[in-house]
Amino acid sequence: MNTADVKTLKVAVKSCGGAEGCHVTATADDGGILNYEVDQRKAKPSFACVKCHLVYGTKPTPASHIEAIQKAATK
After folding, report:
1. Residue 65: is it exposed, middle or buried by C-beta count within 10 angstroms (0-12/13-18/19+)?
2. Does 74 score more than 70 pLDDT?
3. Is the pTM of this model over 0.85?
4. Which of 5, 40, 67, 73 is disulfide-compatible with 1, CB 3.0–4.6 A?
5. 71 in helix, strand or coil?
6. Taking Cα atoms as reference points, which of 31, 4, 19, 57 lies closest to residue 65?
7. Which has more confidence, 40 or 24?
8. Mean pLDDT value across residues 34-62
9. What per-residue confidence (pLDDT) applies to 4?
10. Helix (H) or strand (E) holding 3
């Protein structure tokens, strides 16, 4: 793995998508792209998350992504 890959793995979920990060909302119905992509992955494990990821979109969903959605749902 090169240095760029290591840095990419350390990017915080909140680094993209505005003040709340990654367009996270309480539910996918509220418009959050992270919510939508995680829901798609749950429904079809082979779904590739490509809205933000071109290389890592087929890897397991990171815990940080699930935690971001849970945090948004409790606001």
Report:
1. buried
2. yes
3. no
4. 5
5. helix
6. 57
7. 40
8. 82
9. 47
10. helix 3-9
Helix axes 33-43, 63-73, angle to 10 degrees: 120
- How many Å apart are CA 9 and CA 19, to the nearest integer? 20
Single out the residue of 32, 31, 21 nearest to residue 64, CA to CA.
21
Report domain extents, the chain. 3-73
How far apart are the C-alpha atoms of 60 and 29, rounded to whole Å? 23
- Report the distance separating Cα 58 and Cα 74, nearest Å: 28
User: How many CB atoms sit inside 10 A of residue 20's CB?
Assistant: 16
C-alpha to C-alpha distance for 51 and 33, rounded to whole angstroms:
8
